[in-house]
């Protein structure tokens, strides 16, 4: 930053008078200020950091190794060939670096150069680091802040997008890909973040949409603001496009650093193990009383998750979307795990379209990157209603079922209370190759709740209350599942952490291979 | 753990093991209990006792029962069915739903429980039925022993006027005043002239400050007389008043007495209970710094005279007001075990519950007055689930998500009836525990209290530890210069938490920075990955509410805050809520309440929690570009989080609600979801009614 501040506009020089060394220095200096101090100030005024500042904060100090600083765009139309329209490095900063010592490739779009628009050169730079990331097996983090295609370049820019998309798809499931939207990202550009594993946004300064408010107005006559159409709130609560939103650039980058710690570098690496200060055999007494006596009373699944995982450190994914399911990353005895849990506090923890899709995508990420999955089950079933049926709950619910079934990573399931109907099967049941399935004493594995069951079995008969009591006695407990071996043990809730840690140690050597296929056909 | 396996009952065993595991030291259950733990087995008392109470006092009584080999029966409301006192008991009977009037005060149900379990005696604890003569009578009628005084003593001492008359007759100093009910204004006028101002007018049947007025002149007396009789009539259905001299700025000192059914009575020294808020005690100690042996003896002897005058048996407490000239006046007698009895047990070594049980069985007292010692000093802090920043404590409710008593420290006794995972509900007293420390000297007991408060881990509810710690470290408290007006005098503008000075601010900032660096370094310790660039010095900026401070940390633990050196070392366990540190050579235990990726750390330091934010120099520089955002206030609006049916609406417009209080219940998918207030406020409007169907996001209730 010091260099940036002292710099005076130095793009104006005559090539012939300078030695190569001087020219290198000049270009480097020019690259460091991107679009110039004025635009940097404008960026700051908007509450945004510059592309380079973002990289600096994201990576460990002095770890950034830049590539393609001398790349310039190749457009010669509309006066773009003039010197004043050439910026060394063009509108993106790319390279590699480290986060807490671990390798990562990164690109950061520079809004101060042509609004961060994507030129052929810009795309080529991104593709280069993505290829390198694939070669060595390291994650890619993209910091998006771009007005869109470089219109002056026309189809070259479109080709550039497609080149990136292809690489996003090829890298999918090979190295983790994270997108952090820190400014506009519109039109075709949105599909790169959409193809990556995680999309994070910055509140109030970032937007994602296919077409902006003006086009929307002219086509559908809807009045909508940028924020309403594609702001962080919309995408983290309504559309489910983004996985988390942060207050500002600094918070977002610091949180991505934290998030990165959970991820393996590639699908060839096991889930990372970090030094752990939390005893693996810690008993969690509060869990013995957490499930209320009344089966209709709610409790917070997050209370269970947070007390079980290491140091109560739980990085929740999509915390504001489809809140009836909780997903996120945590550690058990230092090892990264993926947590999936029904949330009884929201819509009774039922499965619906959104929660099924949210859960399925998370489970597949974990499976792709060797992250064990721990599932907490308290599910009364799938949500009934025309909205759900018309919306295709059958095919969306199947996604979650599919994801759990195909996953070959260690799978540990804890039934805390209800596990009713088809939803029981879905939630990482023994039948879907669950490795260890536990039931708490409060668990009830059944086709449905007692009242509904009795109404069907004893339709039109008297003594319904008596029959209901009998049904409760018979089925509203963990025994029917336990006697059939559908759960491996009925455990004291306070011992849950201890058991999971122990099981994970055993399951570290789990090997399971699905039948060969070109690729599976998940019901999309 | 083997040390705990003393009890034959499985329940008790589970309880003991469970309880013990809260403690890091693995020390036996309440091994620090500062009262006699020996019991002579030759003396047979009862086979089975029912404890007609809940919470810590029920647990306290059961501990002694277990020691004496007596079976215990717990009674409980439905919401208390997994409470500690229920688990601790050999048998438990549910006596009704949550509201106390339907459970713990439900005499019919409790009588049924006694019959069903065959309990031979009942210990009422304090509160609830402990001073209920009707209950005592019903027990007597069925031949069940009441572990407390006889009915006539309860009756005699239960009425303010009568008790004062009896006290006067027994040559106990009473506050000068009109003996008996005042009716005619002219009488009063003449009498007040004799007495001198200020005077206090209070309801004979009163309590809790209701129907009480202080008057400094004739006009105020006339008004007070009118208001008090109205208030007394409406509150107690009894408009009898009494009038007496008002003792300004008094101390509240009480004498513990113990009497048997054979006319023997002892005084077990005093308890100083002057630190109060809204007439409720907060910190108590025994002995008092204020009493000399002569006054103590005089008070003790008068207390015994009073006990004998009403043929008192069992443990009881005679409360006195003591003025600055050590004149003492009888206030009232509590005919039960007091909340603050543990400090008396600490300095005398007696187990008061054991003595009460013996006396109830008809045994004579084992001790003589000269056997009663004052050994050392004991302090009791009442740890409450309440927000001390609001009128020195407004109740808060919630679930104890993490709870760890400081029993790893020596000479600490914690009387509690809750455990990790317990709910502090609106139905009952929000007391979490009584934290008692003991020492050879007062200074020692106080130092331990400081340490114990710092090591007490309570998460999930707001608690009053910040206030307790400020009180016991306040110079006026340390010097013994206290009165019942201590809190309003010391904090005239309300309690604001610990105020940092230059040194303590530096210590706090240095600790936060060191914690931050510990977490940063730990993030790099990932198995199998490349080792990061070595760093041995960090430049940080730490923000506290008063601004940003530059902090430099070196790997060796040297920290420089705004240019001043601070040395910090300690065991850095990032999973532990406690941070035992040595800061500039002084041992201090801090608590990390929360920590996030953005560098925000909530630290409890000197009892008070402080919000700090630690940023690297670079992040701090960049942070200056970040715009300030005004958070949207959604706390005033309650919307339905899901579609469903409104089952109940618990508030109406104008009602005050506390944070966490239930506002309405929505049933969705046959699940009842309780919606609660996110802040303390008044209800502005209600937009739903029971039976109504609501959609997600529908406005239910607006708060002011």
TrEMBL record, chain A:
Catalytic activity: butanoyl-CoA + hydrogencarbonate + ATP = (2S)-ethylmalonyl-CoA + ADP + phosphate + H(+); propanoyl-CoA + hydrogencarbonate + ATP = (S)-methylmalonyl-CoA + ADP + phosphate + H(+)
Pfam families: Carboxyl_trans (PF01039)
GO MF annotations in UniProt: propionyl-CoA carboxylase activity
Domain CoA carboxyltransferase N-terminal: 17-275
Domain CoA carboxyltransferase C-terminal: 279-518
Family (UniProt): Belongs to the AccD/PCCB family.
Protein name (record): Propionyl-CoA carboxylase beta chain, mitochondrial
Organism of derivation: Sander lucioperca (Pike-perch)
Recorded name of the encoding gene: pccb
UniProtKB/TrEMBL annotation, chain B:
Highest taxon above the source species: Eukaryota
Cofactor: biotin
Entry GO terms, CC: mitochondrial matrix
Gene3D superfamilies in the cross-refs: 2.40.50.100, 3.30.700.30, 3.40.50.20, ATP-grasp fold, A domain, ATP-grasp fold, B domain
InterPro entries: ATP-grasp (IPR011761), ATP_grasp_subdomain_1 (IPR013815), BC-like_N (IPR005481), Biotin_BS (IPR001882), Biotin_carboxylase_complex (IPR050856), Biotin_carboxylation_dom (IPR011764), Biotin_COase_C (IPR005482), Biotin_lipoyl (IPR000089)
Primary residence: mitochondrion
Catalytic activity line of the entry: propanoyl-CoA + hydrogencarbonate + ATP = (S)-methylmalonyl-CoA + ADP + phosphate + H(+); butanoyl-CoA + hydrogencarbonate + ATP = (2S)-ethylmalonyl-CoA + ADP + phosphate + H(+)
UniProt record, GO biological process: lipid catabolic process
Subunit structure: The holoenzyme is a dodecamer composed of 6 PCCA/alpha subunits and 6 PCCB/beta subunits. Interacts (via the biotin carboxylation domain) with SIRT4. Interacts with SIRT3 and SIRT5.
Protein name (Swiss-Prot/TrEMBL): Propionyl-CoA carboxylase alpha chain, mitochondrial
Protein source organism: Sander lucioperca
Gene from which this protein is expressed: pcca
């Amino acid at each position: 930053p010091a260099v940036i501040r002292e710099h005076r506009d130095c793009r104006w020089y005559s090539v012939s008078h300078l030695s190569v060394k001087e020219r290198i220095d000049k270009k480097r200096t020019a690259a460091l200020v991107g679009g110039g101090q004025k635009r940097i100030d404008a960026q700051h005024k908007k509450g945004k950091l510059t592309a380079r500042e973002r990289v600096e904060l994201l990576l460990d100090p002095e770890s950034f190794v830049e590539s393609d600083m001398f790349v310039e765009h190749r457009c010669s139309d509309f006066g773009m060939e003039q010197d004043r329209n050439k910026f060394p490095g063009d509108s993106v900063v790319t390279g590699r670096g480290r986060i807490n010592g671990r390798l990562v490739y990164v690109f950061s779009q520079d809004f101060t150069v042509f609004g961060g628009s994507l030129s052929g050169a810009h795309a080529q730079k991104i593709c280069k680091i993505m290829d390198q990331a694939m070669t060595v097996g390291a994650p890619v983090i993209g910091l998006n802040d771009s007005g869109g295609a470089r219109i002056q370049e026309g189809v070259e820019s479109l080709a550039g997008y497609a080149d990136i998309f292809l690489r996003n798809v090829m890298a999918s499931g090979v190295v983790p890909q994270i997108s952090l939207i820190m400014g506009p990202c519109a039109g075709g550009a949105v599909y790169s973040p959409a193809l990556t594993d995680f999309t994070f946004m910055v509140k109030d300064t970032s937007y994602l949409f296919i077409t902006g408010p003006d086009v929307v107005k002219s086509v559908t006559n809807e009045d909508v603001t940028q924020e309403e159409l594609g702001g962080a709130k919309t995408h983290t609560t309504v559309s489910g496009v983004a996985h988390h939103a942060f207050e500002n650039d600094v918070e977002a980058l610091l949180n991505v650093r934290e998030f990165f710690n959970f991820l393996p570098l590639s699908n060839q690496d096991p889930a990372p193990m970090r030094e752990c200060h939390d005893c693996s055999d810690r008993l969690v007494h509060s869990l013995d009383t957490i499930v209320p006596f009344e089966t209709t009373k709610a409790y917070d699944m997050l209370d269970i998750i947070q007390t079980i995982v290491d140091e109560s450190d739980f990085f929740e994914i999509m915390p504001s979307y489809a809140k009836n399911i909780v997903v996120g990353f945590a550690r058990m005895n230092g090892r990264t795990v993926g947590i999936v849990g029904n949330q009884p506090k929201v819509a009774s923890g039922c499965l619906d379209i959104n929660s099924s899709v949210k859960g399925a995508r998370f489970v597949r990420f974990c499976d792709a990157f060797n992250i064990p999955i721990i599932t907490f089950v308290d599910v009364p079933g799938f949500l009934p209603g025309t909205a759900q049926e018309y919306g295709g709950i059958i095919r969306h619910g199947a996604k979650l079922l599919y994801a759990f079934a195909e996953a070959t990573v260690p799978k540990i399931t804890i039934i805390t209370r209800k596990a009713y109907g088809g939803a029981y099967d879905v939630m990482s049941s023994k039948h879907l190759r669950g490795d260890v399935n536990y039931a708490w004493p409060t668990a009830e594995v059944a086709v449905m709740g007692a009242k509904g069951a009795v109404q069907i079995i004893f339709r039109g008969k008297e003594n319904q209350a008596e029959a209901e009591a009998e049904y409760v006695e018979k089925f509203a407990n963990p025994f029917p599942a336990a006697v059939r071996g559908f759960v491996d043990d009925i455990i004291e809730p306070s011992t849950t952490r201890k058991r999971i840690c122990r099981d994970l140690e055993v399951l570290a050597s789990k090997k399971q291979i699905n039948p060969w296929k070109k690729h599976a056909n998940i019901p999309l | 753990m083997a040390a705990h396996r003393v009890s034959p009952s499985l329940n008790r065993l589970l309880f003991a093991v469970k309880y013990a595991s809260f403690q890091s030291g693995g020390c036996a259950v309440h091994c620090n209990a500062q009262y006699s733990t020996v019991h002579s087995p030759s003396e047979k008392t009862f086979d089975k006792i029912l404890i007609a109470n809940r919470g810590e006092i029920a647990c306290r009584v059961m501990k002694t029962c277990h020691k004496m080999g007596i079976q215990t029966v717990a009674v409980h409301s439905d919401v208390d069915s997994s409470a500690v006192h229920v688990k601790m008991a050999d048998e438990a009977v549910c006596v009704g739903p949550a509201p106390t009037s339907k459970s713990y005060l439900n005499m019919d149900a409790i009588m049924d429980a006694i019959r069903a379990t065959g309990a031979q005696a009942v210990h009422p604890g304090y509160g609830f039925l402990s001073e209920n003569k009707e209950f005592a009578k019903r027990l007597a009628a069925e031949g069940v022993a009441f572990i407390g005084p006889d009915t006539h003593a309860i009756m005699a001492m239960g009425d303010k006027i009568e008790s004062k008359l009896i006290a006067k007759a027994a040559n106990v100093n009473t506050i000068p005043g009109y003996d008996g009910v005042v009716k005619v204004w002219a009488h009063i006028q003449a009498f007040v002239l004799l007495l001198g101002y200020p005077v206090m007018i209070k309801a004979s049947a009163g309590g809790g400050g209701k129907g009480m007025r202080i008057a400094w002149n004739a006009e105020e007396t006339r008004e007070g007389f009118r208001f008090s009789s109205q208030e007394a009539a409406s509150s107690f259905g009894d408009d009898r008043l009494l009038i007496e001299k008002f003792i300004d700025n008094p101390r509240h000192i009480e004498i513990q007495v113990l009497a048997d059914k054979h006319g023997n009575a002892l005084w077990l020294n005093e308890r100083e209970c002057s630190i109060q808020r809204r007439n409720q005690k907060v910190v108590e100690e025994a002995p008092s710094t204020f009493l000399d042996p002569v006054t103590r003896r005089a008070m003790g002897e008068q207390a015994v005279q009073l006990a004998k005058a009403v043929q008192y048996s069992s443990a009881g407490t005679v409360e006195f007001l003591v003025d600055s000239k050590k004149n003492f006046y009888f206030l009232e007698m509590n005919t039960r075990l007091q909340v603050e009895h543990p400090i008396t047990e600490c300095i005398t070594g007696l187990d008061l519950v054991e003595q009460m049980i013996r006396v109830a069985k008809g045994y004579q007292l084992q001790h003589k007055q000269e056997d009663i010692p004052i050994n050392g000093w004991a302090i009791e802090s009442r740890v409450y689930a309440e927000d001390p920043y609001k009128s020195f404590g407004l109740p808060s409710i919630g679930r104890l998500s993490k709870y760890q008593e400081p029993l790893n420290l020596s000479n600490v006794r914690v009387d509690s009836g809750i455990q990790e995972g317990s709910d502090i509900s609106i139905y009952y007293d929000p007391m979490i525990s009584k934290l008692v420390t003991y020492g050879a000297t007062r200074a020692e007991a106080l130092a331990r209290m400081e340490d114990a408060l710092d090591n007490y881990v309570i998460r999930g509810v707001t608690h009053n530890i910040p206030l307790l710690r400020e009180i016991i470290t306040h110079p006026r408290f340390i010097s013994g210069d206290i009165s019942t007006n201590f809190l309003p005098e010391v904090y005239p503008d309300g309690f604001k938490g610990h105020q940092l000075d230059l040194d303590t601010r530096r210590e706090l900032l240095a600790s936060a920075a060191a914690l931050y660096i510990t977490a940063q370094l730990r993030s790099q310790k990932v198995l199998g990955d490349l080792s990061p660039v070595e760093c041995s010095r960090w430049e940080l900026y730490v923000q506290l509410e008063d601004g940003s401070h530059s902090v430099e940390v070196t790997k060796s633990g040297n920290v420089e805050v705004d240019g001043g050196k601070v040395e910090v070392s300690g065991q850095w366990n990032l999973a532990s809520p406690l941070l035992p540190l040595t800061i500039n050579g002084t041992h201090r235990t801090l608590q990390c309440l929360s920590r996030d990726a953005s560098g925000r750390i909530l630290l409890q330091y000197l009892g008070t929690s402080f919000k700090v934010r630690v940023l690297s120099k670079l992040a701090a520089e960049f942070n200056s570009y970040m715009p300030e955002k005004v958070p949207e206030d959604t706390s005033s609006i309650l919307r339905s989080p899901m579609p469903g049916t409104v089952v109940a609406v618990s508030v109406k417009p104008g009602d005050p609600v506390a944070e966490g209080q239930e506002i309405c219940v929505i049933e969705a998918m046959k699940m009842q979801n309780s919606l609660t207030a996110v802040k303390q406020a008044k209800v502005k409007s209600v937009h739903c009614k029971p039976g109504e169907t609501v959609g997600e996001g529908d406005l239910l209730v607006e708060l002011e």
